[in-house]
Amino acid sequence: MIRILIAEDQRMLRGALALLLDLEDDIEVVGQACDGEEALSLITSLQPDVCLLDIEMPVKTGLDVAEQLIERGSTTRVIILTTFARTGYFERAVKANVQGYLLKDGPTEQLAESIRRVMKGHREISPELIFGTIKEENPLNAREREILSLSAQGKTANEISAMLHLSYGTVRNYISEALNKLDAKNRIEGIRVAEQKGWL
Amino acid sequence: MIRILIAEDQRMLRGALALLLDLEDDIEVVGQACDGEEALSLITSLQPDVCLLDIEMPVKTGLDVAEQLIERGSTTRVIILTTFARTGYFERAVKANVQGYLLKDGPTEQLAESIRRVMKGHREISPELIFGTIKEENPLNAREREILSLSAQGKTANEISAMLHLSYGTVRNYISEALNKLDAKNRIEGIRVAEQKGWL
DNA sequence: TTATGCAGATGACAATTGTCATAACTATCT
DNA sequence: AGATAGTTATGACAATTGTCATCTGCATAA
């Protein structure tokens, strides 16, 4: 019996997946979490064989959870299940050494089969991601990302400088550099591009 | 037997919902669509009793579909099933006279029951939406919305003025007015607020 | 007819933003 | 020690943005 845990904040999907997987004879859904924090603590206490992690969840993202599981030397295998084929997300998942990265756009029928294959030691990656991704690296460094994120929240260069204890000019330099790398003509365009690629 | 059609672009969710509903003795999923256009043509040809429509789909949104069904005098009952509790969406759905508006954040178990109740002539609205929404009207008029949308794509005031055959100053006036209404201190914040409320 | 209101335009002003050249200070590598 | 690279800072400049008061048509209602 494969014991699995589902972490997904959208209740309808979480419930439907749990039901669907429970119909399989060899799979048992032992727990469900609606945010990253809960997922982490349930995985620790329940020790499931596999966990299905959404990325964009409250409190902690699925990627955060995956990284912390590695740190703790957990034996639970991780399958990321997300809407986003964003290169940034995928790269981070690969670095965190997850066993699977599936898209919510993929077929339902394949999910159970993917779980079984992961149990056998295979890696399961949505075919959309296998080609044409690795080349698109995140061009932004940590500072640029941090500053652009704050800017994306509507913060002003001045506010950001106060928050990060940097000078006004430095903040603007970083934004300028980021926009240059993203080939964007202003903050708004830059934010669009970066968000869309999962670089923020 | 209640014949239903599901329109939802996310394949995993669509598949899971179809399976879940097909398990019910009195419900039969007669069709699935992955965009609004397909939904419309399948509803016309299959004449299901109920259709489940996602809002944010390619080609045509679920709201577009609902509105066109009314126009055509279709007898198929409509349940909107969406992630978004945005007031703008909800208002539009109410105006289109849909029979249900459920959130994907709601419980899976209730879905089949909601469908049965809709068949009996009830209206099904997610409880989150019943209170505290109607008052939050979209404060932006058509022009302001149009201009802020273009701005959200990274367009400059100058570019927008050329696109809409308005003067540079007029465009900035509209943006200023929109920001004032949204209580935002700059474009970026304004865009965030408006998008989050479904006002764009 | 006057009044009222709306869509659009103009001009002026200050603040913010985007760009660039340059420099100081570290830390690291050779 | 010298070379190199990364981080932070400055100053200067132009362009863009945000705000306001004011003005022109134009339609429509009193």
UniProtKB/TrEMBL annotation, chains A, B:
Keywords: DNA-binding, Phosphoprotein, Transcription, Transcription regulation. The keyword Transcription regulation applies. PROSITE patterns: HTH_LUXR_2, RESPONSE_REGULATORY. Pfam families: GerE (PF00196), Response_reg (PF00072). Residues 133-198 form the HTH luxR-type domain. Coiled coil: none annotated. InterPro entries: CheY-like_superfamily, Sig_transdc_resp-reg_C-effctor, Sig_transdc_resp-reg_receiver, Tscrpt_reg_LuxR_C, WalR-like. Residues 3-119 form the Response regulatory domain. PANTHER family: TRANSCRIPTIONAL REGULATORY PROTEIN DESR (PTHR43214:SF42), TWO-COMPONENT RESPONSE REGULATOR (PTHR43214). This is Two component transcriptional regulator, LuxR family.
